[in-house]
Design a protein that fits this description.
Mean pLDDT: 95
EC number: 1.4.99.6
Largest sheet: 8 strands, mixed
Strand order of the largest sheet: 6-7-5-15-16-17-14-18
Distance between the termini: 11 Å
Keywords: Oxidoreductase
Strand content: 25-35%
Pfam families: DAO
Helix content: 25-40%
Number of domains: 2
Shape: elongated
CATH topology of the largest domain: FAD/NAD(P)-binding domain
CATH superfamily of the largest domain: FAD/NAD(P)-binding domain
CATH architecture of the largest domain: 3-Layer(bba) Sandwich
Organism: Nostoc punctiforme (strain ATCC 29133 / PCC 73102)
CATH class of the largest domain: Alpha Beta
Protein name: FAD dependent oxidoreductase
Order of helices and strands: EHEHEHEEHEHEEHEEEEEHEEEEHEEEH
């Protein structure tokens, strides 16, 4: 059975690798650019699962599935490829500001405990003891999530691609989809039998659209437009030259939607802004917003004021218009086109669960149909 995946960010790569573990599938991945270029390459890789406010239904289920899968996936990929994937196992620390509701956090701690997960509420004394780099009078405490993680999204995606290649997946980069052919034209649901690309025809039994913002023009060619809009995010890498606080305890720190992520050797990623397009789809990066993110990070960890900025970058996140993110399931009107797109700010977090979901759809339907 032939499967074609369109898009090779972290989601497309995770699907390719997960499907490569299924016998009897012949998998091809196409992307118009090299892997991990778009939103994946700009992401900070902070996996907010246990510490997220999602407590039930699919939103929580997918987070839980992904967090569990990452514990086995990272060592699995490292063993297969010999690559090192930076994976911070020291948890996530969420800083509480005075206006935040302690009762809501206490409730979350209780819910997570009943679900078999661990969260801790720290008062300012404990916070000062364990993370002395956090020094801000507006902070009234923190919530520590030891089972949440942070990873390098680009390193992860490249390892997924290499491992999938070893398992026989074909990757075609620099290939653009021009058109799609469906059979028969007047039936419902329709069956897509081939794609016209800049490299010729590609025939398959299943097509998986995992192209982020590229999913909109692609689905437009099939007259079933899935409207995904860009939301810009900017971040910066700051060099302090030594670890902040305790060198042996370097969790990802988050507060007021600003992340401070240790990336080794006294460097920190700080981000990210959330910038919506004002008119059309153009979003020029707003320098002032990036500066306010930097200032917020310094307010939390004053020592960052001495840091040098090594680089700044931005990326566009794919946000579905008028519906919740992500969009996973069949493209309406088609029997063999699956969507795995529009993950907005959670592409890296939800990639493993998305890959599982797509695998189930293909394996179960493939047997029947």
């Amino acid at each position: 059975m032939n499967v074609v995946i369109i898009g090779c960010g972290v989601v497309g790569a995770a699907i390719a690798y997960e499907l490569s573990l299924v016998k009897g599938l012949k998998i091809t991945v196409c992307d118009r650019q090299p892997p991990a270029q778009a939103s994946t390459g700009a992401a900070l890789g902070v996996l907010m699962g246990v510490i997220s406010q999602k407590i039930k239904g699919k939103a929580w289920q997918m987070r839980q599935t992904s967090i569990q899968r990452y514990e086995t996936l990272i060592p699995e990929l490292e063993a297969l490829t010999g690559r090192k994937i930076p994976f911070n196992r020291q948890g996530i620390l969420s800083l509480g500001l005075e206006e935040e509701n302690l009762a809501a956090w206490e409730k979350l701690v209780e819910i997570r405990h009943s679900q078999g997960w661990h969260l801790e509420i720290w008062d300012t004394v404990k916070l000062q003891n364990i993370c002395p780099q956090v020094n801000c009078e507006k902070i009234t405490g923190a919530v520590y999530s030891p089972q949440d993680r942070q990873l390098d999204p680009t390193a992860l995606t490249l390892a997924l691609v290499e491992a999938a290649q070893q398992n026989g997946v074909t990757f075609k980069f620099g290939v653009t989809v021009l058109d799609a052919q469906t059979l028969p034209p007047d039936s419902s649901p329709q069956f897509c039998n081939k794609l016209e690309t800049t490299e010729g025809k590609i025939v398959a039994d299943w097509f998986v659209v995992a192209a982020g913002l590229g999913s909109t023009p692609l689905t437009a060619k099939l007259n079933q437009i899935i409207d995904i809009r860009p939301v810009l995010g900017q971040a910066l890498q700051m060099r302090v030259g030594h670890p902040l606080g305790n060198p042996d305890f370097q969790p990802a720190i988050t507060g007021n939607d600003v992340h401070i992520v240790p990336v080794g050797a006294g460097d920190y990623w700080v981000g990210a802004t959330v910038e919506f397009p004002s008119n059309g789809n153009e979003i020029p990066p707003n320098q002032e917003l990036l500066e306010s993110v930097r200032e917020q990070a310094i307010a939390f960890c004053p020592e960052l004021a001495t840091a040098t900025i090594i680089r700044t970058w931005s990326g566009l996140r794919p946000r579905p218009e008028g519906r919740p993110a992500p969009v996973i399931g069949k493209l309406p009107g088609f029997s063999n086109i699956l969507l795995a797109t529009g993950h907005y700010r959670n592409g890296v977090l939800l990639a493993p669960a998305t890959a599982y979901a797509i695998r189930e759809m293909i394996v179960f339907q493939g047997i029947g149909g």
